[in-house]
């Protein structure tokens, strides 16, 4: 009995020892595997800036932001030190440029300000004769042009200047009759009736008065200009016969002119009668001609796609003539508060308008804005900025941000891709049926709507060593299950905009 108990105890001790040994071996193997995985997944991800104590994702040259480096040093592109991109920034809040480099690039800043300005727009206009003040010279009798003083249309005339001398043979008979009645001693009633008959035949009162004074009949009358201006029409010649109501000439004044402003079709709904107009002539920009829109002419010109607005401007010194081209500023009488930036600060790409904003931390970031009308050298910003912000007023095209403004650099990279220091990348073979793909393993550092940042293993096909860099996503909703901290296997291709992800999955294929 005692022997059986001793044998049972010995078996229990041996079993316990076996379990402990198996646990030790399994634990050692698991620890070794975990250590290898940790080393493979985080070759260079835990980088801490000793100056700030912040975690660094990678280093880059702000002027070539798409190229990332896994250690600090001097930029191979510019004569400057590489700058760190921290994990709490992710490179998504613009770029930071050294103050000395900003001075070399000639970067100048301006403040977004709010100002009371007159709502309006710039346009061009032409001067024309004021047709509402034109006078005509007409014949009231049948006669003949005895002498024509005016020689041709568009001749300048002064008020009272002779236009034409008219011979009227029908005036002779009533005047001789009146003289005969007067010599015959007829009563005043008969003479008054004779004078009324002469007035009915359009004999001027001056001719009748001269008939009483001199006793001689007159058959010639001189037609004169009713005002100072220009003969815009001259419809007769010497010796021509004229009839009652016929227009011999038309005189248009020059003391007041029409200014017809060509309003672009896009601004047709903004213009209205009563708006003020300040116009200048290119030949004398110091002199201003002002007025208010009197009427808007109906219809849009099919050739110029403009709406015409008309107003009167003074020309007492006769400096202006019809047909002059003038620059006009059309504005409302009431001022409105508007947010303004210098016009040179706005970059128009054709699809959008961009302003580069200086953040409080000194980083530069592009911001899409909605612009309104121009106000002199400034442009109204309807949306995208707030009062007091600092914007770049010069040197915008020398700044390339990781967040936006991909212009020249991506095109150059597509032509001659730049590899990390000491490595060279081979572009995909031209004419290939499908783009060449590359794959590697790495740790996810950051996920944004546009890209994913990895600390990845070497890519021998491209001559890359281990580094941290960003790869573009095919769409903002792609790879929704990928989270920072995961160890993943990813596949990517090279394109004109950089490197594009095609597949991302956790190591081992687990989702």
TrEMBL record:
Domain CusB-like beta-barrel: residue ranges: 257-333
Region of interest (Disordered), residue spans: 416-437
Gene3D superfamilies xrefs: 2.40.30.170, 2.40.420.20, 6.10.140.730, Copper binding periplasmic protein CusF
Keywords associated with the record: Transport
CusB-like barrel-sandwich hybrid domain boundaries: 135-251
Domain CzcB-like C-terminal circularly permuted SH3-like: 340-399
Top-rank taxon: Bacteria
UniProt domain CusB-like three alpha-helical bundle: residue ranges: 170-219
Pfam family, one: CusF_Ec
Chain ranges of the Heavy metal binding domain: 58-85
Ranges of compositional bias, category Low complexity: 416-435
InterPro entries: 3HB_CusB, Beta-barrel_RND_2, BSH_CusB, CusF_Ec, CusF_sf, CzcB_C, HMBD, MFP_Cation_Efflux
Similarity field: Belongs to the membrane fusion protein (MFP) (TC 8.A.1) family.
NCBIfam families to which the protein is assigned, alphabetical: RND_mfp
Name under which the protein is recorded: Efflux RND transporter periplasmic adaptor subunit
